[in-house]
Design brief:
This protein has helices spanning about 25-35, 50-60, 80-95, 130-145, 165-175, 185-190, 195-200, 215-225, 230-235, 250-260, 280-295, and strands spanning about 5-10, 40-45, 65-75, 100-105, 150-155, 180-185, 205-210, 215, 240, 265. The chain is α/β, with parallel strands linked by helices. An 8-stranded parallel beta sheet has the order 1-10-7-6-5-4-3-2. It has a two-stranded antiparallel sheet with strand order 8-9. GO terms for molecular function: myo-inosose-2 dehydratase activity.
């Protein structure tokens, strides 16, 4: 357990898909509150400086660091060489910051940012050729990441072609375990109707990064019944922090811990900061991690 690091993502302060949420919040405030809440690190947010020479001193003076960051890919819709060029540029940025992991997610055909498409009714699927482009491309990008001392962890995500258990299985079965890890996001699994305990158990030795959030079941039902988009589901409060929902993370993550996991437990519960004070949420989440894992 001493090798597990604790972090919280900036998405609770300001949302990457809806920048108006927390639009007036500075990145300095986010970093300060991450540190003050007792976390060791964070992920990249849309407010953060793009120049490592500017961002690193801000991190260092607060005693925190960058753990990982989202990297959207278009392996199903664009030529591999174009995707690779963009990925290498981002990889080098992450390496300059001393990060550990790049959270990759296929964005070809995604509906996660479309407020006019219901998250369940409009979910995309991939053709066999698109699956092949995705999995072979991921293996290659895993090699490119390793060249800079980083790993890639695949972020299954609502509104994409890798959301369900069957889709996660297909991606895991058709990629090299030494090159492509899995990002376990409990909130997305619960929202989708999957069993996070099953995923955590079966892929315990392949988890590269963990996003920790819970769901509000009434809001999941609302998303189904009212045909909400992903973003409108977020605004309705579908996600919340661990400890504020019904999920017991102790037994859920035990298989991952027992498998020798040495990465990050990253709180990542996107909500409207006007309704869920980010600093209060950070403090409560940190308390939950201590009570549950002794960390």
């Amino acid at each position: 357990m001493s090798t597990i690091k604790l972090g919280i993502a900036p998405i609770g302060w300001t949302n990457d898909d809806m920048p108006s949420l927390g639009g007036d919040t500075t990145y300095q405030q986010i970093l300060s509150e991450v540190a003050l809440a007792g976390f060791q690190g964070t992920e990249i947010g849309n407010k953060y400086p793009k120049d490592p020479a500017v961002l690193k001193p801000q991190l260092e003076m607060r005693g925190i660091r960058i753990a990982a960051a989202w990297c959207g890919l278009h392996l199903t819709t664009e030529p591999y060489k174009k995707v690779e060029k963009e990925f290498i540029a981002f990889r080098d940025y992450m390496a300059a910051l001393g990060a550990d992991c790049i959270n990759v997610a296929e964005q070809g055909h995604t509906i996660q940012g479309s407020r006019d498409i219901p998250i369940f009714d409009g979910k995309p699927t991939y053709t066999d050729q698109e699956w092949d482009n995705l999995t072979t491309g991921l293996d290659k990008l895993g090699d490119r990441a390793a060249e800079a001392g980083l790993i890639i962890a695949y972020h299954h995500h609502m509104g994409t072609g890798v959301q369900t258990t069957a889709e996660i299985d297909r991606l895991m079965d058709n990629t090299d375990p030494s090159k492509v890890k899995l990002l376990l996001d409990v909130g997305h699994l619960l929202f989708s109707g999957e069993d996070p305990q099953d995923i955590a158990t079966r892929y315990a030795d392949r988890i590269g990064h963990v996003h920790m959030k819970d769901v509000r079941p009434a809001m999941v039902a609302k998303a189904h019944d009212e045909h909400l988009s992903f973003l409108d589901s977020v605004l309705a409060g579908v996600f919340t922090i661990p400890g504020d929902g019904a999920t017991d993370y102790g037994p859920l993550l035990k298989p991952v811990i027992d498998a020798g996991y040495h990465g990050w437990f990253m709180i990542e519960a996107e909500q409207d900061p006007a309704l869920a004070d980010p600093f209060v949420q950070a403090l409560n989440a940190r308390k939950y991690l201590h009570e549950t894992f002794g960390l």
